[in-house]
Amino acid sequence: MGGLVEGVPRRSLVSLAALLALLLVFPLFASGYLLAVGFLILYFAYVGQAWNIMMGFAGQLSLGHSLYVGLGAYAAAALYVHFGVSPWIGLGASVAISAAAGGLIGFLAFRFGVAGVYFAILTIAFAEFARIGFDHFTWVRGSSGLFLPVASYAANDLWNLRGSPVMFYYVMLALTVGAFWLCHALLRSRTGYYWLAIRESPEAAQALGVNLFRYKMIAVMLSAAMTSLAGVVFAFYYNNLFPEQIFHISRSIELILGPIIGGIGTLLGPLVGALLITGLAEGMRELMLRLGIDVPGVKQVFYGLCLLVVVVFLPDGVWPPLARALGFERKAKR
Fold first, then answer.
1. Mean of the pLDDT values across residues 243-266?
2. 329 vs 272: CA distance, rounded Å
């Protein structure tokens, strides 16, 4: 434990513990609506952390991350619907398929020198291919949608992910905490240092002997595998899947807004960004409903305004200046 907290200000540890305690007791006093918002915040914080590994740590921009959410969701849901396989067992197929898809994209890009904006376009293309393909994939009901049997909320069946929103909230909280710990450990590892070197200057990293292809592939495949796990929870929480919904590029944009707003390459950035984006957007939507105002696309306009404010006034995201103001930065070693 000492290795994980070395040099970290005590107030940071106390604040993290207090935040975790608050998240643990949140369902005890939250209404059904607030619980759903809390689940969404944790969901976007988790997928933002997974995307952060690829972009924030290794510097590889993906704009098609909905591909891995969709592949993970469809793999586990189809196995459950057709064969009654538990989603935790189906998770193996979800992770394998998504990691293979990420590996294919990474191999094509890194082996043939596709980088920058062209790599981002490649990720969008694969997500669109999946959307069109699943639209005509009859085994998973195509464009008609794949529906999971809705179970009673009277009892929680964690093995089959059938139960109340409270159960799903705690599952998502566990995943978010696990992703935070994993990313913290990765950043302090040799792999993490190699990723940061590649992000800052690939040419300099290669000159120092870093295997660019290998470590970029690790980042892409790990990010894809982690994102597919969120897709499994997504499928069993909402109980329905439509290719147009889950693979669409707008879904990818939603996934990456959290770390962009919160701070790319930081550990708490995805959580802070998800809290701001989802919390404020849902609060604004609820307020407009109470006032009887219905404006189509208002949430997308809100997302755009948030991005504009961050790009102009907070180019590093919300969390870095906030961390400095609160004194949460790691103490410099002598």
1. 94
2. 15
Integer Cα distance of 190 and 177 in angstroms: 22
Mean of pLDDT values over 158-168: 93
Q: Which of 176, 157, 142, 187 is nearest to 40 (CA)?
A: 176
Q: Is 166 exposed, middle or buried (0-12, 13-18, 19+ CB in 10 A)?
A: middle
Domains and CATH numbers, the chain: 10-326 (1.10.3470)
Interatomic CA distance for residues 200 and 197, integer angstroms = 5
46-33-303 Cα angle (round to 5): 55
- Region 264-285: mean pLDDT is 89
CA separation, residue 281 to residues 24, 269, 309, 320 (Å): 23, 18, 15, 22
CA 189, CA 248: separation in Å to the nearest integer? 35
End-to-end CA distance of the chain: 21
Contact 234, 251 (CB under 8 A): no
pLDDT in tens, 285-313: 777 777 777 777 777 777 888 888 888 89
**pLDDT tens-digit series, residues 186-242:** 999 999 999 999 999 999 999 999 999 999 999 999 999 999 999 999 999 999 999
pTM higher than 0.90: yes
How many Cα neighbours within 13 Å face the side chain of 108? 13
CA distance 223 to 37: 24
Placement of tokens 């959580």 in the chain? 271
